[in-house]
Design goal:
The structure holds two protein chains of two kinds. Chain A is mostly helical. Chain A contains twelve helices and four strands. Helix content of chain A is 69%, strand content 3%. Chain A is globular, with a radius of gyration of 22 Å. The chains are: A mainly alpha, B alpha+beta. The interface between A and B is large, with 88 and 68 residues.
């Protein structure tokens, strides 16, 4: 893979389109399909977790697995089609609009030209397929355990997360178009919601007196919030993301127990004894993201008004949001499942660590946002010219 | 035009989804679940009650899931109670749980596809309430759980982080190309 900086890197075979409304406007259908695929994965996962909690019996052939797997399949096939179309367009010397998935990068030495967003979502889907084979082998060795944090399961979650990063980049590339901004504000909460399960892998870390999943979750949430603020440069964008995540959480809260029960009835299986019908996965989605978003927006607003340097403001904004998000996690557990299970010493250490990692996330998130803005920029031109366009 | 075929993608996606739905819908889900086959049993005396613990796999290995059944003499119909699991590094809040019917064998209590995570000695205890009153008891000798099968966990986790490593590599390449640090500036716009 090679990310081009200049027209020359395409060996003279790429014609770069001047950004025009027409081609950009036509970029939304494949982007929407990839986003739909990732949504299907998110709902499939929530349904599957609820199925294991409330009903139990497992095979590869359950409808929740179908939703989970077909989500990646849809995202992967759509990404592949766009890559093939872009490759064909490039070989024919036709214009390639970087707002359709981002700059086209050379893959396999120039055999394919892949818009960056679709390359990432396609690679995530392909990885999901490979890791799925490993997961099947794992189950032949260990049985059909319903353990979320087994190594192949965490690798599957990571692959889906990478698939979900694809539409974030794709929509960011079209952020000067309405569908691009709307898609960005939808795809970011999908990635955030799914990250809730991805950080389960951190439970394998040795215990050092903090809750690694809470810290990891706070880090990712702050990173993505600040990235969004940096990429869109529109005050209030992170508040919209927080609100959309809240809406997603609400929908999943209603959907997951209903889907598990309805499917159990449809296939003639009873519900488990002694089970509280509590939405297992939605209860882990960060309830207080909006609070973290308010902290980020407030610090950035003050920084703009008073001319504070972003070099220290961003870590401060991230640190404040990190402290809030990590510190409020036990409150969420108490509210949603009636049990936080956190000792005071662990709570304090986890909150402090959340602040430290939040500061790092603030530092990185803004820079990642700048990189994300560069995705939809035409590749031609000098470094100085393109940087001017970003800054 | 280049994008014309791309706009046909919804149809393609719907066709793919429909094909998958029909393929899986024909799999008769209820009959696809494996029966509970007990290959080993142990007996526990809990006061006036005797409970037979059934294992679908024997011997036990760490992390390897199996079905457990718990059957009091005379059946479960007029009884209730709790299960107590004691093992290495068992979190206190997971040690006790109410006895529940096995999802695939509803005439007995049980645990479905459950793995004991760590090798070592594990004990099973019961508190039963029934027509003969209350009774408690545990296995006279704990069950030995052997080491996990398969490759070492460190190797498995190393494979798990490959997607993360690729993502980090991607970010590093992009960082070197864009050099965002130089673009942060002195003021937020």
């Amino acid at each position: 893979m090679d990310i081009p900086l200049s027209h020359r890197r395409f060996r003279g075979r790429t014609a770069l389109a001047a950004p025009g409304t027409r081609t950009g406007a036509r970029g939304w259908p494949p982007a929407a399909i990839v986003l739909l695929g990732t949504l299907l994965s998110l709902f499939g996962l929530s349904w599957d977790v609820q199925w294991h909690v409330e009903v139990g019996p497992d095979t590869f052939f359950t409808l929740s697995h179908l939703a989970l797997y077909s989500g990646s399949a849809i995202a992967g096939v759509a990404s592949l089609v766009v890559v093939l179309r872009t490759t064909a367009a490039q070989r024919a010397g036709r214009a390639v609009d970087p707002r359709v998935g981002g700059q086209a990068v050379r893959v396999f030495g120039g055999v394919f030209a892949a818009p960056l967003g679709y390359l990432v979502s396609g690679c995530g889907a392909a990885m999901f397929l490979l890791v799925g084979l490993w997961d099947q082998w794992w189950h032949t060795l260990y049985g059909f355990d319903a353990v979320l944090d087994s190594p192949p399961h965490v690798a599957l979650f990571l692959s889906i997360s990478i698939t979900m990063i694809g539409p974030v980049l794709t929509f960011a590339a079209a952020r000067d178009l309405r569908w691009g901004r709307i898609g960005f504000l939808l795809s970011m909460p999908v990635l955030m919601a799914f990250s809730t399960v991805t950080v389960e892998g951190l439970s394998a870390l040795p215990s050092i007196g903090v809750n690694p999943m809470t810290v990891g979750s706070a880090f990712l949430e702050v990173l993505l919030l600040v990235l969004a603020a940096s990429c869109l440069r529109r005050p209030g964008a992170t508040l919209v993301i927080g609100a959309v995540l809240g809406a997603l959480q609400g929908i999943l809260w209603l959907f997951s127990p209903w889907a598990a029960s309805a499917y159990a009835v449809a296939v003639g299986l009873p519900l488990r004894d002694n089970v509280r019908s509590l939405p297992a996965f939605p209860s882990r989605i960060p309830l207080f993201l909006l609070v973290g978003a308010v902290a980020v927006e407030l610090v950035l607003w003050l920084a703009r008004r008073r001319g504070w340097s972003p070099r220290w403001v961003l870590p401060v904004a991230g640190g404040a949001a990190g402290v809030l998000l990590a510190g409020l996690t036990p409150v969420q557990a108490q509210l949603m499942v009636g049990f936080s299970g956190t000792a005071l010493r662990v709570f304090v250490a986890t909150t402090v660590a959340g602040g430290a990692f939040g500061a790092l996330a603030g530092f990185l998130g803004w820079r990642f946002g700048i990189m994300t803005r560069a995705v939809g920029r035409p590749a031609a031109g000098t470094r100085q010219a393109t940087e001017a366009g970003v800054a | 035009m280049r994008m014309r075929a791309v706009t046909r993608l919804p149809g393609l996606a719907l066709a793919l989804a429909a094909a998958l739905v029909f393929a899986v819908a024909g799999a008769a889900p209820a009959s696809a679940y494996a029966p509970v086959n007990i290959v080993h049993t142990e007996r526990v005396t809990a006061g006036p009650y005797v409970v037979t613990i059934g294992f679908s796999v024997w011997p036990l290995h760490a992390m390897q899931s199996l079905d457990f059944t718990f059957v009091p003499d005379g059946g479960i119909a007029d009884k209730s109670g709790g299960l107590f699991l004691e093992g290495p590094d068992m979190p206190p809040h997971e040690k006790a749980q109410p006895l529940a019917r096995h999802p695939r064998k509803r005439d007995v209590w049980g645990l479905d596809v459950r793995a004991l995570p760590i090798q070592g000695d594990w004990n099973f205890g019961f508190a039963i309430d029934g027509p003969l009153g209350h009774g408690e008891g545990a296995l006279a000798a704990p069950v030995a759980v052997l080491p996990q099968p398969g490759p070492p966990l460190a190797l498995s986790w190393s494979i798990t982080v490959i997607p993360v490593a690729l993502l980090v590599l991607f970010v590093v390449i992009a960082w070197r190309r864009v050099r965002p640090g130089a673009l942060v500036g002195h003021h937020l716009e």
